[in-house]
Amino acid sequence: MTIEVRVPQLPESVADATLVDWRKRPGDAVARDENLVDLETDKVVLEVPAPVAGVLKEITLADGATVTSGQILALIEENATTAGAAAAALAAPAAVTATAVATEAKAATPAASATKLSPAAKRVAEENKLDPQTVVGSGRDGRVSKSDLVNYLQAKDAPVKAPTAPSAPPTPSPPPPPTPGVRGARQEQRVPMTRLRARIAERMVQAQATQALLTSFNEVDLQAVNELRARYKEPFEKQHGVKLGYMSFFAKACVEALKKFPSVNASVDGNDIVYHEYFDLGIAVSTDRGLIVPVLRGADQLSFAEIEKSVANYAARARAGSITIEELTGGTFTITNGGVFGSLLSTPIVNAPQSAILGMHKIQDRAVVIAGQVVVRPMMYVALTYDHRLIDGREAVQFLVTVKQGLEDPARMALGV
User: Fold this and answer.
1) Where are the alpha helices (DSSP H) in 179-222?
2) Is residue 349 a contact partner of residue 192, using CB atoms and an 8 Å limit?
3) Which of 59, 14, 18, 68 is nearest to 36 (CA)?
4) How far apart are CA 323 and CA 310, in angstroms?
5) What is the rounded CA–CA span in Å between residue 317 and residue 310?
6) C-alpha span between 417 and 119 (Å, rounded)
7) Domains observed in the chain
């Protein structure tokens, strides 16, 4: 019995998806719920599992195709086995059809033999007549990326100096005049943006064009937080199974500040201001595909351990491509941490339709004056970018001061003062 594999129902906010990578080829045996193909949307990569066990009979749409909900992607011969498929092949006429020959020839080409190539990498391989099987992939499940191919080509094209036999020194001659020569290869690669990268670009430009963005800065002494982390690091991890990081402290501090300044947790909708009476914090996560922002629902009701577990879980699933669209929507305020990459100071862009975003940065020991004494403390610059149409400078500055106070004296967050 032939079973159709269709595009799953996409969320309302997603109109279509791009077929990224077939994991199986016609004639391959598939197990029930085994991933057949990846579909890339504006926000996440969706996996399409096999509805039944059998043999993949036909693929109707190739990599790179744009698909919508319900479209037929492939046909599976249900209850067929690899042995059954082989017996059927033996019973077929001995003559090989032109289609089979063409299929074998196509499978023998480097581009078709690479079953773990992204569309961008496939284009690089085809343009440079490169067999991807000779390249070690650094992506998930050994997938070969564009950067893997580019690095391989650059290493392959590097000049190798062969040893030469000693010879008499040549007669000295004046050096030639300098000319604007070109050293090494000057190659270019043009690849289309991924849907996620295109969506990020669209949203960033939209935020800059539609909001009156302004950034205020402050600095935080993290001595008290470091002391708490050092004191309770081992018992916390032993009891909750997760490390006590900085994000839970910042999330708690931001929630307390949002309670005091509701406009920072609000959004503009036309001529209306929508005040959110809940606290759904977006936590920016960097992945190979781009920046995504999973949302901590009801962050004000989460404990330190629950925040750390949620952040770790979201980060792992985001990088594995298994996070859902529902987990990326509905945030009221965002925290982004450029400090993990070494950023000392930056001006983050608001994640519309939100009205503000807090930027964390690198912790650096600096000399500061405390009680008239110069001491060395672990300091971090924090930045709040906000929509000035809704949030006044006074509120933005006081918001940052509240975050600073909560982090420099964590007892405030426990006592709610």
Assistant:
1) 195-210
2) no
3) 59
4) 12
5) 11
6) 54
7) 2-92 (2.40.50.100), 195-415 (3.30.559.10)
Burial tier of 382 (Cβ tally within 10 Å: 0-12, 13-18, 19+): buried
- SS3 per residue for 298-321: CHHHCCHHHHHHHHHHHHHHHHHC
Exposure of 408 by Cβ count < 10 A (0-12 exposed, 13-18 middle, 19+ buried)?
A: middle
In angstroms, the CA 354 to CA 129 distance is 47
Task: Considering only residues 120 and 278, tell me which one the structure prediction assigns the higher pLDDT.
Answer: 278
CA distance 7 to 37: 10
HSE value, Cβ hemisphere, 13 Å, CA-based, for 356: 31
Using a pLDDT cut of 70, give the percent of the chain over it.
77
CA distance 229 to 234: 9
Q: Active site includes 388?
A: yes
Residues whose CB falls within 8 Å of the CB of residue 172, separated by 6 or more in sequence, listed in order: none
Considering the candidates 16, 365, 392, 409, report the single residue annotated as catalytic. Answer: 392
Active site residue 276: no
CA distances from 287 to 137, 309, 322, 323 (A): 17, 18, 12, 12
- Judge contact between 130 and 153, C-beta under 8 A: yes
- CA 253, 254, 259, 261 dihedral sign is positive
pTM of the model: 0.63
Q: How far apart are CA 314 and CA 330, in angstroms?
A: 15
DSSP bridge partners of 38: 21, 47
Find tokens 């199974």 and name the residue. Answer: 241
What residue has token string 């924090």? 382
Instruction: State the DSSP code for 104.
Output: H
pLDDT tens per residue across span 11-27 = 655 677 888 778 888 88
Name the 3-class secondary structure at 111: helix
Strand partners, 214: 386
Cα separations (Å) of 48 from 14, 17, 55, 313?
16, 12, 16, 22
